[in-house]
Amino acid sequence: MLLVNTHLLFPHNSSFCLIRLWQVYKIIECLEKFMVEHGLTPVPVILCGDWNGSKRGHVYKFLRSQGFVSCYDSAHRYKDEDAHRWISHRNHRGNVCGVDFIWLRNPGKTHQPLSLSWKEAVLGIIMKLLQAKLCEAGESAKEIYRQVLEMGCRLSFYDLQKRLYQLGFTARSAEKMVDGEIKDLLQSFYIEMDDLKKYSVFPPSTSTDNVITHTTNSSNVKMLNCVSLDANSASRYKSVLGLTIQGASLFPPLVEQGMWPEDFALSDHAPLTVILRPRKISD
Question: Which of 94-98, 157-161, 203-207, 244-248 has the lowest mean pLDDT?
Fold first, then answer.
């Protein structure tokens, strides 16, 4: 078993969502390299900590695309859409949210290749922010479409970070990406633009949100068969051990109902406990 305890970048401000996504990407990348370098057989991976993002955020969706399940949500049979069922933190502003997770990925769990999933997530953020900026300016659907295409045509390696800053990211948000990652991301952006150009005009009843989502979904379809090698190689091992989620709880119990007790002063985070049991995945 591989276990990681982490605390992603604070604050919750959306301008830091890219760097939090990058942090998770690097954590998983390091784990995959570690397993290869040490010749490890497939093992369960557990990621736990304060993710500074809820079930509605990009980090949650990214981890789900990588085959991880939230132990607490799985134990209580909550769906990805059930973001209001529980909380684990009351911040300094008095706002409550669910940001503490224990994630589990068992051997053989199918998922998108890491780099493709990462690029898709980042491009999704850029598209969404660009759309929001143009909508705030009162632009029409056709004008938004035109500007998105032009952005793809004009974008270069040297001004990608500048574009991100204009969309609300801070300099700190992108500074940790190495040149190779930025170039790789830029190439993927052009591929996304090629997909988008297939739609010469927006259908009359279709919003820009639907078109951009449709483009992203088309990339999803292309990548469905690109699963991790672990899924294909797990059968080579006579006995692969995984973990079953037996139960999970938050303390104090009131937070499990989405409310923060006023008399709880032990911490501004509710401790999360998960019970796991070993099991054989293949014989």
Answer: 203-207
78 and 216 belong to one structural domain: no
DSSP state string for the chain:
-EEEEEEPPS---GGGHHHHHHHHHHHHHHHHHHHHHTTPPP--EEEEEE-S--TTSHHHHHHHHTT-EEHHHHHTT--TT-TTS---EE-TTS-EE--EEEEEE-TT-----HHHHHHHHHHHHHHHHHHHHHHHTT--HHHHHHHHHHHHHH--TTTHHHHHHHTT--HHHHTTS-HHHHHHHHHHHHHHHHHHTT-SS--TT--HHHHHHHHHHHHHHHHTT---HHHHHGGGSS-EEEEEEEEEEESSGGGGGT---TT--S-SB--EEEEEEEEEEE-
- Quote the domain boundaries for residue 270: 2-111+228-282
Q: How many domains does the chain have?
A: 2
Q: Which of 7-16, 71-80, 211-220 has the lowest mean pLDDT?
A: 211-220
